[in-house]
Amino acid sequence: MLLCDFHIHTTYSDGSVELRRTVDLFGQAGFDVIAITDHVVNGDSSFGKLAHRFRYSINERNFSTYIGAIREESMRARDKYGMLVIPGVEISKNYLSAEKSAHILLIDVKEFIPACWSYEKIFLAAKEQDALIVACHPHHSSEPLSRDTLYLWNNRDKYAKYIDAWEIANRDDVFNVISLKKFPYVANSDFHRTRHIYSWKTLLNCEKTVKSVKQCIRHNRGVAITLFRN
Ligand code: ZN
Ligand code: ZN
């Protein structure tokens, strides 16, 4: 099966490891498929404005540079490690209230999508680009410094139809509500620093191409999770 991690941050947003070094880290650890998913933060809240001020967000101006850099790394990773690197973003809707907040991975994204758009507009734009849509850390998290993002789970009756998969595990957390609802699932590191490589991961039984990976997750057959440790 393919060892995969679809939730990885770099210095393009709030990660501490540069893109090239991140790719080398995962390549040397024997990964088959990774997605680089730096934050696109909403500008319509005080949190969001701060993120933009400190350059913790991809924006419309640097989006093509960011995607171009990932595509270049993708070619290098294929030759050097036989690893597939997919460009993505994490749409980050941050508000004071956890009930209002949500994070969404768009994997194999091609055009910039602003995080201040409505959920419906974001999902439809992502579908038009054939990007894979993943609801991130959808329930209460144990990370002391992270803030809960509960909007999509609390509004799952309305939005589940747009979501290709939910994070059943994120870094050290497992969200058993996802399995109770029998939702399609993946597991990711939410990598921000080197030690986060040791965390929950996805295993896929499919070919190592972007098309097969997206199809396998959407059908959610031949998907497993594993705790990757040193
Ligand atoms: Zn997040
Ligand atoms: Zn993240």
Please report the number of helical segments: 8
What is the SS-derived class?
alpha/beta
What series of H and E elements makes up the topology? EHEHHEEHEHHEEHEEHE
Characterize the main sheet: 10 strands, mixed
Strand content: 25-35%
What compounds sit in this structure?
A: zinc ion
Mean pLDDT: 95
Domain count: the total is 1
Give the end-to-end Cα distance, rounded to a whole number of Å. 19 Å
CATH first level: which class? Alpha Beta
Low-confidence segments: none
CATH-assigned homologous superfamily = Metal-dependent hydrolases
Summarize the entry for a quick read.
By secondary structure, this protein is an alpha/beta fold. The protein has helices spanning 19-28, 46-53, 63-81, 119-128, 151-154, 156-159, 176-180, 210-219; strands at 2-8, 33-41, 84-93, 102-107, 132-135, 165-170, 173-174, 185-188, 200-204, 223-227.
Report on the structure:
The protein is an alpha/beta fold and 230 residues long. The protein is built from eight helices and ten strands. Strands 1, 2, 3, 4, 5, 6, 7, 8, 9 and 10 form a ten-stranded mixed beta sheet that branches. The longest helix is centred in the N-terminal third of the chain and has 19 residues, at 63-81. The relative contact order is 0.17. The model has no long low-confidence stretch (mean pLDDT 95).
Write a concise keyword list for the protein shown above.
alpha/beta, 30% helix, 230 residues, 8 helices, TIM Barrel, single chain, binds zinc ion, ten-stranded mixed sheet, globular
